[in-house]
Amino acid sequence: MSEELDLKMKKYLRGGAANLEVLQDKKLKGQLAHRENLYGKSAKAAAKFEKWLMPSEGGYLEAEGPVEKTWRFKQEDIGQAVDISSARNQYDVVLPELGPYTMDFSSSGQYMAVAGRKGHLAIVDMKNFEVRKEFQVRETVRDVVFLDHQLLFAAAQKKYTYIYSPEGIEIHCLKDHGTVLRLQYLKTHFILASVNKFGHLHYQDVSTGASKSYRTGLGRTDVMRVNTVNGVVALGHSGGTVTMWNPNSSAPLVKMLCHHGPVSALAFHPNGHLMATAGKEKRIKLWDLRKYEALQTLPGHANTLDFSQKGLLARGTCSFAEILSGAEHYSRYMNHSMVKGYQIKNLLFRPYEDVLGIGHSMGWSSILVPGSGEPNFDSWVANPFETRKQRREKEVHLLLDKLPPETIMLDPSKIGTVKPARNKEKPTKKEREAEMEAAIEDVKGSITLKNKTKGRNKPSKRAKKKQEIITKVKRPFLEQEMREPQLSRKKQKVCVEDELPKSLQRFTRKKAAT
Amino acid sequence: MKVKVISRSTDEFTRERSKDLQRVFRNYDPNLRPQEKAVEYVRALSAAKLDKIFARPFIGAMDGHIDAISCMAKNPNNLKGIFSGSMDGDIRLWDIASRRTVSQFLGHQGAVRGLTASTDGRVLVSCGTDCTVRLWNVPVATLKESYESSDNSVKPLEVYVWKNAFWAVDHQLDGGYFATAGAQVDIWNHNRSQPVRSFEWGTDTVISVRFNPGEPNLLATSASDRSITLYDLRMSSPTRKLIMQTKTNSICWNPMEPMNFTAANEDSNCYSYDARKLDEARMVHKDHVSAVMDIDYSPTGREFVTGSYDRTVRIFQFNGGHSREIYHTQRMQRVFCVKFSCDASYIISGSDDTNLRLWKAKASEQMGVLLPRERKKHDYHEAVKNRYKHLPEVKRILRHRHLPLPIYKAAALRRTMTEAARMKEERRKAHSAPGSISTRPLRKRRIITEVE
């Protein structure tokens, strides 16, 4: 019992305790020790109250016996074994004329924005499956994304990006973004990120309107994903590299070579340090973002990838969707083949539900994936049963807690920490030279030579005197230089001799015979 | 196969009737909340800004005196009242809530130098430069009577005339004696017209006296020979004397740690001492630019307020070297006395411009009854500010205070002077044999000697 409690407590402790032994200030040490004690107590209380606050365990799909395998179960079997209200979540919406469909869910899973390539835009209320508003924009729509603020959504259309209200009224036309291929939204920063056909990454603050654009220099790409934990945007390029960007720097934060061929899909695990990439050379790799190394390589194509809240990975190619699960080692969990001819455009897990939404060339579908959604939601974070008043309150609080773009960094836990005091490092050679130059300049300005008479004031003697003064100033710097490089020169000599092959060793400088 | 899918019924998660409260579900999992530290930082920044927006410490001034206010006394049995005495002999009892005079105690011929209330709060003791000690009956307000605006004059209960002018008076917190300071320290009983005992050490006038709140027989005095003396009533002679480089204007004992006291010194610093170990100050509180005239502790014992000759009132933490807050107004001239109210929420300052001013102890505090949600919010703001107060942006906002120009310049001048003295000392040390020059620590520097 207590081991379970310890495990749960670990989650709430958010990392290890601070090392208080190095502190010399007794008062501070006492205060921090008291605080650590309080953290322990609150983590323990949270772990204890879990059983009342979070009663539901979540969905599961288990195979009975050694012969049955979970990936052999079809959606029909699952639908029959499950209650009626959940079986309603399995459906196919067939709209063959309006092109491949993309979808996006709002953060609580209550609304879904759907965009067909031929210009069909719709908002669907997921509680009662009714279409709240649908309209035709008569242009190609490449991507749609929900801006959580006031239920607005952005659609990347033929030439520009437009922001629409839930009633279908066009609110903004964002011309600076250009012809956008993919859109992503950073919820806590209120930033809309887009990548256009020239490969330019554009960040736009939706609440203030400020924007920044960066040229990636790596060509046209439509693989873009945002890491919700730290807010960095990752782009997958046709050279097989994945670059990560933040709005503060014009160079990518990280550039990783992931695949031998172009990167076709990208997804981030909700914990922030697992990334799945798919390359066109039929490989899917799972990367650890703390050490930047590949944890696992799986064979297979993927046009689209998505992680669920509980860590299940869904991949979709042509008309086949596969779901992988496993804590450290991902393996097959479920399969779903659609009718041949349905090309899957994008896969998205619905938040707080065991549902996977599939957008394909003939409309959109939804299938049940037991164990993918988070069963216990927090009303202050995302409430699937939100009323209008609650939504408006939440928006005000979100705006008050809006994070500035400077907080987007690879390791967000560094915010609030103090830079460790560095011991004064030895000045580099350049710095030393610069100091010497500065000292010489100072002296040169203030040299005043005695005005000697009776023929003793010759120009050559004056010049010599000046040089003497300058060398006097230079002397301490040169002495310092002389003392240090002796060691490094000696080291170099030894290394060079070792490296040469035997046949060439006769040409090295021999040591003096002692 | 065993299968289960998340299915939530709307009934369980929404309210039944429109009269019910909305249902709230909690999951404290940190994985649901990305970027917690950044959100906390943003909240700390806005809490600091809100703090500054709502910082309105000045409540009001109580005017009525026609000469500078020399002393104040508070009555521990009555939160709403405060006594003040002025340089023309006028003593008034004020009602803090309405900021009006309740009653006037007329009688003193010269300046009133000391005021104190007795243990039960019924008797007010005052002393002045006219060599008299007067005892007054304090009018007690009943629930039916309200304080009328017309001043009621009260006749003195007793008038005791003695040999020398008095400088200060203080009453035992839990006993029948009170002590006056003048040429020597006299201990009086309410009923006797002559002091019961007299203490004397040296020939200089004693300018302030304070009884210890925890130990009723112990008292501390300061004299104009730059000394602080401790007396014990049970012994026949004074116990200990500490001589400093400059005169101490006022002393106050810490009500929560009665062995510690803080002395308000003429050299614009306050020194906290442990009465058991007087050879070293426990803390030096430096922030005023001119002589500190009066000091009073909050009943929590965690902070104290000082009033100084440089027209400002500052609040210090009991263990902090610098002030947490400074209050100033254009109209407030030299502050001669300050008092912390008995509920630790207000500060009353009496100054040269004949006004008593009422201030809030915490400048941005919301007064009145707070709803539990409001209180939680304030606590959260305090906690989040404390966590991030070391970061430069937050620190800049929290630290910012507008100072009057003369004080800003005087403080800058002091800084350059101390910096110059410190550099000179450092260079002397660097150019002399190691160990030949030793600096006395700051806590001992201003002490000359301790005498038994």
UniProtKB/TrEMBL annotation, chain A:
Residue stretches making up the BING4 C-terminal domain: 332-412
Residues covered by region (Disordered): 411-432, 450-493
Record-linked Pfam families: BING4CT, WD40
Subcellular localization, as worded in the UniProt entry: Nucleus, Nucleolus
InterPro entries with a match to the protein in the record: BING4_C_dom, WD40/YVTN_repeat-like_dom_sf, WD40_repeat_dom_sf, WD40_rpt, WDR46/Utp7
WD repeat placement: 256-297
Domain of life of the organism encoding this protein: Eukaryota
Ranges of Basic residues composition bias in the record: 451-465
GO cellular-component term (any): 90S preribosome
Family matches, as SUPFAM superfamilies: WD40 repeat-like
Location, primary (coarse class): nucleus
Biased composition (Basic and acidic residues): 422-432, 466-487
Biological processes annotated in GO: maturation of SSU-rRNA from tricistronic rRNA transcript (SSU-rRNA, 5.8S rRNA, LSU-rRNA)
Keywords: Nucleus, Repeat, rRNA processing, WD repeat
PANTHER family in alphabetical order: WD REPEAT-CONTAINING PROTEIN 46 (PTHR14085:SF3), WD-REPEAT PROTEIN BING4 (PTHR14085)
Full protein name: BING4 C-terminal domain-containing protein
Organism annotation: Carya illinoinensis (Pecan)
TrEMBL record, chain B:
Keyword list, A-Z: Nucleus, Repeat, WD repeat
Domain Sof1-like protein: 361-447
Domain of life from the UniProt record: Eukaryota
Entry's Gene Ontology BP terms: maturation of SSU-rRNA from tricistronic rRNA transcript (SSU-rRNA, 5.8S rRNA, LSU-rRNA)
Any one cellular-component term (Gene Ontology): small-subunit processome
CDD domains to which the protein is assigned, alphabetical: WD40
Ranges of the WD repeats in the UniProt entry: 62-104, 105-138, 199-241, 285-326, 328-369
Pfam families assigned to the protein according to its UniProt record, in alphabetical order: Sof1, WD40
UniProt keyword Repeat, yes or no: yes
Subcellular location(s) per record: Nucleus, Nucleolus
InterPro entries hit by this protein: Sof1 (IPR007287), WD40_repeat_CS (IPR019775), WD40_rpt (IPR001680), WD_repeat_DCAF13/WDSOF1 (IPR051733)
Listed PANTHER family: DDB1- AND CUL4-ASSOCIATED FACTOR 13, U3 SMALL NUCLEOLAR RNA U3 SNORNA ASSOCIATED PROTEIN
Protein name according to UniProt: DDB1- and CUL4-associated factor 13
